[in-house]
Amino acid sequence: MSIEVLNESGAPADEETLVRLARHVLDGMQIHPLAELSLLLVDEPAMRELNLKWMGEDKPTDVLAFPMDELRPGHLSGGSEDGEADPGLLGDVVLCPAVAERQARQAGHSTQDELELLCTHGILHLLGYDHAEPEEHAEMFGLQGRLLESWRESR
């Protein structure tokens, strides 16, 4: 898997761990091993701007997901004309460590734990999961919990 991390936030983050987590989540979701994912860490002004532009919310948020190709769990790819699997470009997960740090304090865990939760959450959004409806919420957060639990057990 090609997982690129760009930290423009000015905050320290364990980028190697985020890459390993992302790989764990994508493997667990049976995404093509050559799929591409981008993780971007930004500061609050940049996240506020993205959140306003794309979600209509004039405040920084913790995570945004910008999907590219339509890859779904259990599918190795969208396929190609010759029937061979192609890896696809998943998209971008944008994280805001400053918001994650505040949320981590409120939740009573580390900022890294919060970033791992948000990274997993963002990847699931890239794969088409949502939590607007109660059934969707239960499915997405249940899956997120299982993926994080298996991640922690594997470390």
UniProtKB/TrEMBL annotation:
Subcellular location: Cytoplasm
Binding residues for Zn(2+): 121, 125, 131
Enzyme class, UniProt record, top EC level: hydrolase
InterPro entries: MetalPrtase_cat_dom_sf_prd (IPR023091), YbeY (IPR002036), YbeY_CS (IPR020549)
Alphabetized Pfam families for the sequence: YbeY (PF02130)
Cofactor(s) recorded in Swiss-Prot or TrEMBL: Zn(2+)
UniProt keyword terms in alphabetical order: Cytoplasm, Endonuclease, Hydrolase, Metal-binding, Nuclease, Ribosome biogenesis, rRNA processing, Zinc
The family this protein is said to belong to: Belongs to the endoribonuclease YbeY family.
Protein name, as recorded: Endoribonuclease YbeY
